[in-house]
Amino acid sequence: MNIQENISLKNHNTFGIEAKAKAFVEINGLAQLQKVLELKAYPNKFILSGGSNILLAKDVDALVMHINLKGISVVEENEDEVVLKVMAGENWHDLVLWTLEKGYGGLENLSLIPGNVGTAPIQNIGAYGVELKDVFESCAAMEIAAGELIAFDNDACKFGYRDSIFKNEAKGKYIITSVSLKLTKKNHTLNTGYGAIEDELKKNEIVYPTIRDISNAVIAIRQSKLPDPKEIGNSGSFFKNPIISKKTYQKLKKEKPDLPSYKVDEDHYKIPAGWLIEQCGFKGKRFGDAGVHEKQALVLVNHGNASGEELLKLAEQIQNTVSQRFKIQISPEVNVIK
Ligand code: EPU
Prior knowledge:
By secondary structure, the chain is of the alpha+beta class. Helix content is about 25%, strand content about 30%. It is built from seven helices and 20 strands. It has a five-stranded antiparallel sheet, with no helix packed on it. The chain has a four-stranded mixed sheet with strand order 1-2-5-3, covered by helices on one side. Helix 3 (about 195-205) packs across helix 4. The longest helix has 19 residues, at about 310-325. Uridine-diphosphate-2(N-acetylglucosaminyl) butyric acid binds near residues 275, 283 and 297.
């Protein structure tokens, strides 16, 4: 296997931040993964997938394992449904396009999300009314300590909003190697309720949308307000939308009648962090090369040569300002390495 020392990770994180890895190895197979985990020469190991949900605020003093496991296969199928097993290193959006080609429904609302399949369960990726957990059957993960594969079904993953067991009690203990998804072959459940999708379909005079139409609508919406990491470094939403109590919500709503919100349950409301950040005057602002996207304040951007520390400083400044102004704590959605 080819282990390289002192490698730049600039092309391995969508923020495009210059940070170094002590060592770097590409993982192309499960047997190789087991061997790498046994390597005594590098006691510290670090898992890197698509690099689309990470802020590298310092160099990585570890052996970085770049998960490049590939393959999509049908493992179960009947007239109505299909179960796919997808290896962790497959690109998420390429998978979505592949399923649309085959006419399989379920992933269309999750079009154009950056990153790879293996990291999708960690934060239960979600957009436009659908979350990964809605189509997730199970995943296989290698236990780092034992080098053995373990299966996690939907319940075992303890999915929540941008959350799973892999961000909590299982954090740092497993490497997800494949994900199994259950998709529909006909009678697809279409999720068009999200306002922006409805508007986009109406604009294109589509009354009876297909899964492809929904995917195209989502792609158009995302492209209109989210920056393309190939053009400007970013990691999608940098913060999670905070969930606040009904009491806090009602107080704020009185002050700010235009406050947007999603009702979570009888006692809780989710507030778009992008709105809070915009209210604090950060939208489109730039501090050196670290900035806040001009069309969606939830997204931090690297205008060229921002360091991870500069972006982290900006994130902390935003958190403090939102906290002082609204008494609401917002926390990062991305994995911050500091
Ligand atoms: N808003 C503002 N200013 C902004 C941004 C948003 O006022 O700069 C307000 C607007 O009122 C807007 C509302 O926030 O109507 C909601 O905005 P948007 O539809 O863009 O959704 P979001 O809540 O900001 C979440 C996800 C996105 C996902 C969209 C659509 C999180 C942290 N983010 O954003 O996910 O695409 O909903 O479902 O939950 C990602 O995770 O990387 C991501 C892009």
